[in-house]
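Follow-up to my post from last week.
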Amino acid sequence: MADLLTAEGVRKEFGGLVAVNDVDFTIPERTIVSLIGPNGAGKTTFFNMLTGVYKPTAGQIVFDGHDVTGRPPHVVTTYGIGRTFQNIRLFQSMTALENVLVGMHARLKGGILRAVFKPPSLKREEKAAREKAHDLLEFSGLKGHDDEYARNLSYGDQRRLEVARALATEPKLLLLDEPTAGMNPQETAEFTGFVADLRANQGLTVLMIEHDMRVVMGISERVTVLDYGEKIAEGTPQEVQSDERVIEAYLGTAAVS
Amino acid sequence: MASGMQAVRSSAPALKRQSMPRAKRAAIVGIPAFFVLAITGSASFGLVIAALIFCALYIPAWKTLPAGKWVVPLGILLIAILYPIYQPNLFDVLVFGNFPSVDTGVSMMIFIMMALGLNIVVGYAGLLDLGYVAFYAIGAYTVAWFASQHFNGVTLHVGSVGVAESTPGIHISIWIVLIVAGIFATISGVLIGFPTLRLRGDYLAIVTLGFGEIMPQIANNGDNLFGHNITNGPQGINPIDPPGFGNTLHNAVGLPTDFQSSINSTRLFYWTALLLVVLTAFCSARLRDSRLGRAWIAIREDETAAAAMGVPLMRTKTWAYAGGAFFGGVAGAYYGSFKGGTFPGDFYFNISVFILCMVILGGMGNIWGVILGAAFLSYLNFEGLANIGAWMNANGVSSFFFGGDIDVPLYTSGIFGIILVLTMLFRPEGLIPSERRKQEFQEGVHDQPLYDLEHE
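User reply:
Got it. Predicted complex:
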């Protein structure tokens, strides 16, 4: 399988602090990869470099044939990386449908003049976009919530909306930052099924940061472990689970038994 | 066809149901207000008609009818269009006195236009711009350059009206200059935006404040800018040509040759200004509901998330600046032509704040709110405060409180400050808030206090 994303020697320093230390990393197409590690290990920093929020101090990131190192977030999104955030960052005073429409921004046309004159082509485009947004919401389990303000949605639904919004950018690679944080076991199980389904039916590649080991071990083909900004292990869930350094750094003895 | 009939049938009871509480509310507020007006002001036939029109527009829940959403806006538009005709027959209001003159009406329209322009920048995109007057100034100087005798080294006439063919200077038809002024302001908006829009929040406000301060200084000292007389300094540039349609159209369809020499001069200016306001409001609404409008709101809410969703931050913010600047420029150009001159004193910092007050008082992001806020504050500025002062002096209010007559318009800035503080205390979302803003204010902002003060 070809690699969709390759990161070579990626490094991020904040002043004297090395948050991510020369990490090599690949994501094969159509796989689900998990990134785990203790708090402060540099997982979210790594995410932010992939999506262009931070510029790497050194190293190179190639996604789908494009060099995305240090490119601004909106360009990276256009290439096909969609993401969610660790702390929900929805547009709170917009409705669920509008949130998804913002996700489609890069896939729609229509500048300032077309917005004012509103030619038939624009009307068609808007209508199609709304229908698609509606379908995406339904697909993400938010049927009937189209016109609800994001702030009024329940926690679980807000998480779902974040995913729907990320899917609206038409990503090839979906980055999920702790997607099941704060979910109850049943919601977590549903969500895990949803992600597996995305890969199976939509051909998406998924990279997620996750703390819930049942989720990580359940659906990922590959697990990468970061500690103090360094990659300490990589491999199948079984391999990682039995790795000495991982057990020491993170999992603890309970996970082995 | 059948579904249309059904819609009408099902909306009829809804109309009745939703109209009842409105009728009650109108009665509770309206009837006492009507009697106060009738007793204290000049009780006239006009008052009765005004009350009837108000009831007809307010009480029925027009929105429940198909196509009913147009009734109220068109009604208000009609009231505005006919204003110069019935204005002389209007009743007097207690304290405020006469309704604004048509002349004041033109100035009000121009400020409404500017407030709508600023609303795109502040209300939609959430970029606090304290130097908006810069665009107004650019518009006003554009009309001064292209429709006056300022550059008297050349003689260029393109469709100009009201000036002799031999008059030196550049004289281009005001209609063209209005668009050119908008484009110039847009270009300057992009140029100013390029370095400043990388900043967020307070920093952006401070830098725009700087640009707002630079503008009148350039205007004031521009009579010798590297050896060129660009702005004619403190004397300003005048006279500026009036708008008009020229002799050909006058003879063919009866349109006025030029506004200035016409008998109905003020009315013509008024109706043109009203048309410009309608166009501005129309464009604002279209932009608000577009892909760009959504991106603006997304940026206002959360820049990082917006960028991650594929919204290019710089470009989208620059479009907001450019859009706002365009209307500021057109408004400035029209004001120059209306007043027949452009003077540096019109572009001081307080005008920027004044326009911002209109947007905040009316309700950021809501077109009707901004129109109301701008109309009310500019009315106070041009006529209302003088009327109130005259009433206070005549009825002994001034001597009772201040021991003698006072000149109320002197305290304009202070009074606007008080209005703004009261707005923030009692209705922070503005008079007519947009649905989104209402949400934000009801839910509170993110900085919640550490503990509830009421439980102390």
